[in-house]
Amino acid sequence: MKPARFEYARPTNLVDALILLRDHRDDAAILSGGQSLVPMMNLRVASPQIVIDINSIPDMDEIAIDGSTLQIGARSRHNDVLRSKLVQQHAPLLSMALQNVAHEAIRNRGTLGGSLALADPAAEMPACMVCLGAEIVLRSADGSRSVAAADFFRGIYDTALEPDELITSIRIPVFSADWRFVFHEIARRHGDFALAGLAFGRQYNGEIVQDCRAVFLGVEAFPRRLIEIEQAFIGTNLNDRGTIEKADQLLASSLDCLEGGEYPTEYRLHLAQQLLVRCDSEAFDENRR
Amino acid sequence: MNNTSLDDTIAISLSVNGTNVSARVSPRGSLVDFLRHGLGLTGSHVGCEHGVCGACNVIVEGRVVRGCLMLAVQADGAQITTIDSMSPDRYVLALQQAFYERAALQCGFCTSGMILQAAELLRRNETPTREEIRDALSGNYCRCTGYHAIVDAVQTASHALNATPSGNRLPG
Amino acid sequence: MSSNGAGKAAGYIGKGMPRAATRRLVSGRGRYVDDISLKGELHAAFLRSPRPHASFKILETTEAKAVDGVIAVLTVEDIETVCGPWQCTLANAPNLFSPPQRPLALQRVVFQGEPIAMVVAMSRAQAEDGLERIVVEYDDLPAVTSIEDAIAGEARTHAGAPSNLALEYVQSTSGVELAFDKAAHVVHQRLKFNRKTGVPLEPRGILASYDPADDAMLVHASHQMPHQLQLIIADLLDMQLNKVRVICPDVGGGFGIKMHIYPEEMAVCAATKILGRPVKYVADRIESMLSDVHAREHVVEASMAIDSDGRISALKVDDIQGLGAYSVYPRSSTAEGFSALRAMGGAYKIEQFSARLRSVLQNKVMTGQYRSVGHPVAVAITEALIEQGARARGESSIVFRKRNFVKASEMPWVSPAGGRMIDLSHYECLDKLLILSGHAELERQITVWREQGRVVGFGLASFVEFTATGAEGYGRAGVLVSSQDTVIVAMDPTGMVTVQSSAAEIGQGIQQGLAQIIADAVGLPIVSIRVNLGDTQASPHGGGAWSSRGAAITGEVAWQAGRKLRAELLSAAAAILQTEAEQLDLVEGDVIEKPSGRARMTVAELSEMIQFRPYDLPEGLRPQLTVAHGGGRGGDTFLPTNGVQAALVEIDKMSGKVVVLKHWVVEDCGRVINPLLVDEQIRGGVVQGIGEALYEHCRYTEDGQFASGTLADYLLPMAADMPDVSVAHVETPYSGSVLGAKGAGEAGACAAPAAILNAVNAALAPFGGSVDTLPISPVAVLRAMGALQGVAA
Ligand SMILES: Cc1cc2nc3c(=O)[nH]c(=O)nc-3n(C[C@H](O)[C@H](O)[C@H](O)COP(=O)(O)OP(=O)(O)OC[C@H]3O[C@@H](n4cnc5c(N)ncnc54)[C@H](O)[C@@H]3O)c2cc1C
Ligand code: FES
Ligand code: FES
């Protein structure tokens, strides 16, 4: 279980990395935390001709607040994001979700950008980014663009990333104080990729739900906002316990559940429904405090 | 014979357990393979090579990482600590003693990774609960012990450390 | 207590002591196979069949040979010049059908992952590069995957074979049908056990080095029985036995996985013989999952007849066991089925018994002996029937159990399944467990929890585990597996003792156990004893580590060896001190005078004199400082142990996941040599059993593709999901030995699945549902709760 041969490059600035990427495109692999790429190479599921290690490029792991936007460098390690005071303050959803990502040693190395680029349907970060309406900043030798998370994820391990592009940072809008977010997931064992998870947020005006975000992970091929479900909550009084039942009903028609050997689609749907109930009641309790 | 060559290599220099090392490594070689076979430091083990078992844990720049998921070339310039270190810090020492006394190991294959991971926990949280210990060690498989004794040993080490405070406390 | 002094001398025996050897292991100074290198070593990798059943042709190897670093590409034709095929046969089951097996497949592959070709290179990575260049053409044949398909027999595991049935065995006492006819209650249970595997954290590995000048071979292997491996290597490679030296250094766990003959290990021995250079192969995790023996694939149907007095009158069992493509060599995969049958009915006095065992071949990797061989199957089915029987009678299963236990006064009793029940303590263990678990209070608590809407259940499982298999177990099958050991005890001139034995250390702690036994047997401080194991050159032939035999068999031999040395020392001392040996004692290394307790000399002084100044000894006295004792157990081919386990589980209503809140074990392994180590054996086994009950599954797709190749797919128990495990003991020494020790290594794994299964079904009972498949999937649990539409897949 050893990787095939590859060439190794460790550019010390972004431009050099981008030029390498442009020159090698699909033959290249970006090495960020390596917690997904290296296992794939060990298994020879991935055999890039050249590995471009971005770990020596300066400034790619900064976490900063810029006005009303939280900016997280793509190479920020999961544990650094998890323990960041700025993140806890401005995007608590991420701090909650990251506790469910893998284990200490993996989180010490794995990165936010890597997780988004990989786009595992069961991963926590992609769903959170969609939920928070993050912008994913991409750079290529030709320039830079920013893609809304909602448009970035396209399918199982499929994203809007072009072969010559690198994720450099993630920009997350800071939500006003009347928003409440919760995150829950169900994994077979502690730290496993989720069987199903939900990133959920609601904005309140008194007891009335003003706005809502609901994004599942592990349930469908890629994370997306479930507009129908969100709509079902908007405008309702949070004491109206009938809403959740309606929303739960809606899930059956809204979701296109993944099917995987041991877990039939109806099981994932069941988990999704349970998670919605749980997140709803928790956001409810939270708001009452 | 014309085909008995090894892979092309890249020069790296790093510090391993306090000793400066310069070596040439193949880009595709993992850090743990380099430590084990290049440097003969066989204290870290290889149990899965896909990041799941934790037997290969080593400390890179003060953080526990999977030695099987880092390339040796990536360790260029880094400070590495392994269980083989002749001067373990007080956390590792306390854990080694507690694991021994509590029989918190059987075959010992998981032990190096387990101890390094537990040391990281104790550095961050001096008095972890059983639950916190189980949580922190959940990325380290032990097939022999069933974990109960390991949790006991980490608690014992934590008590021992708190009973003998010392200046050798690492930040964060 | 025995007359021989084992009880009286007990200074170290019975004492919970850490293992001296683990000082090395906690500092990273263990030496496992992959930590050992020989100059000039090469690395092997195997091309494995991606197909479960196909005829194949290797079209092209020249490109592979040209890959950088590749030294050789070997196929079956090359290997067969030096290593013959093997075939599993059993003298006492002559109808067993299992075709010959080779290090590399010949023309036809019969399971996915079967090795086809071997590349030997300067590095493992380069060997793997070579694999990618070998061109093979496959012609698919229909594959047999499930047990049901194997029985149906439309496709054949081995093309052209008459059927997939490797073995069928039936037995019955005469009154079974009558008992069922007259029964007041008859209960049925079907259980399906999915394949699991042992996953020792250190994968299998071997480093073999052949010396053509001497026609000798040095083998380092991660194996549980160095001598068995040595014998088979010599046989298959046609070498003289004493020219094959096998060293098993530190072994990173075994659990039964490392006691078989595997194609890869034999191919490596062949390769070093062909190439004349050391060859190393360490399975990577994917290969381990795919090629280590799996275990416990069974579909069992059983019924129990209960008479109007609430006594179990008969038990009927029909077990179909999946073997994989071959019956594993040399011990036979069918041993698991037979082991399960022998343990059926476990702790209960059931006079009428009938059983049918069918062992079927499948296009999957072999199954084989894995920790607690077959017992978990028997215990799960028996204990599920017990719960059902109690329910049918409307009484507590504790009462039902107690009515039916084999009583001490009834022992020895040979069960119709063939187990000789002796020195067992079912009542004591159950009573102790009920106290340990606070059962009465717990039942009240469970009622409260249920009222609060929690889904919780408590499950019990009594068990009998047969350990420390004696000579007749394999002897009568004509299988060359030793159940005996030799222990050599040698005192050096400083009074220190070095011990050699054919037992093997795989983490279970026998090295420490032997040291404690010998320290007591001789009368020495424990620090003076050093026990060396695992080298065929240092120790005469013997059994190694299997069947929890170390304390019961090797320990007993060690005691005898120690007593011999003691006798030598005391008679020498007596001659020197001009007294009688009976007037002296040896305590902690001092020769003392009875009854005053006055120290007369130390063993170091004595030993030095014997070694360097024999002329000062009385005429004719030639004390032996090195003594050996060998042997095994005579009676009781299978040494029974017993115990009770209990689990408290909670079901997560959201997901159907089972959470084990707490687990308890009370077990009786006779004399406990070292309680610290025994407790951890139990705990480790319990957690493997919880894995079996809840997580572990070697999954194959319907068309025979292995789907549990990584540790992300094959779920092992992890720290965060496991409970604390309370352990207590009842000690009923084995009456047939001096020490009275029995096996303890497998008791944990033996009954944990049964306890969990009973606990889960207890939790599900209020919903009117139940589960009958291991591992218990959350999906099945939700279905049993009526919380999920659709029927079980
Ligand atoms: C045992 C284990 C358990 C895990 N459990 C979880 C879990 O529960 N949840 C979870 O979400 N993840 C889990 N992971 C995955 C882990 O979080 C990874 O770290 C993460 O998915 C990928 O991040 P990385 O930085 O390691 O990326 P890498 O492995 O370096 O790269 C992954 C992919 O992304 C590409 N890439 C990386 N960075 C960039 C970039 N900046 N721009 C463009 N492309 C890039 C790479 O080329 C590669 O294709 C687990 C991993 C392991 C080994
Ligand atoms: S070997 Fe690295 S995690 Fe298992
Ligand atoms: S002691 Fe063997 S794996 Fe932990």
For the structure shown, list the relevant keywords.
heterotrimer; A: 289 residues; alpha+beta; Uridine Diphospho-n-acetylenolpyruvylglucosamine Reductase, domain 2; Uridine Diphospho-n-acetylenolpyruvylglucosamine Reductase, domain 3; Enolase-like, domain 1; 13 strands; globular; B: 172 residues; Ubiquitin-like (UB roll); DNA polymerase, domain 1; 5-stranded mixed sheet; disordered C terminus; binds flavin-adenine dinucleotide; binds FE2/S2 (inorganic) cluster
What does this entry look like structurally?
In chain A, the strands form four sheets. Chain A has a five-stranded antiparallel beta sheet. Chain A folds into three domains: 47 residues, 2-Layer Sandwich (Uridine Diphospho-n-acetylenolpyruvylglucosamine Reductase, domain 2); 111 residues, Uridine Diphospho-n-acetylenolpyruvylglucosamine Reductase, domain 3 (2-Layer Sandwich); 110 residues, 2-Layer Sandwich (Enolase-like, domain 1). Chain A has 289 residues and is α+β, with helices and mostly antiparallel strands. The model of chain A has no long low-confidence stretch (mean pLDDT 95). In chain A, strand 4 and strand 5 form a beta hairpin. Chain B is of the alpha+beta class. Chain B has two domains: 80 residues, Ubiquitin-like (UB roll), CATH 3.10.20.30; 73 residues, DNA polymerase, domain 1, CATH 1.10.150.120. Helices cover 34% and strands 15% of the residues of chain B. Chain B has five helices and five strands, in the order ββαβββαααα. In chain B, helix 2 packs across helix 3. The longest helix of chain B has 16 residues. Chain B starts with 9 loop residues before the first strand and ends in a 9-residue tail after the last helix. The C terminus of chain B is likely disordered. With 793 residues, chain C is α+β, with helices and mostly antiparallel strands. Chain C folds into three domains: 173 residues, Aldehyde Oxidoreductase, domain 4, CATH 3.30.365.10; 193 residues, Aldehyde Oxidoreductase, domain 3 (Alpha-Beta Complex), CATH 3.90.1170; 328 residues, Aldehyde Oxidoreductase, domain 4 (2-Layer Sandwich), CATH 3.30.365. In chain C, helix 10 runs parallel beside helix 11, helix 11 crosses helix 12 and helix 16 packs parallel to helix 17. The site of flavin-adenine dinucleotide has 31 residues of chain A, from strand 2, helix 2, helix 7, helix 8 and strand 10.
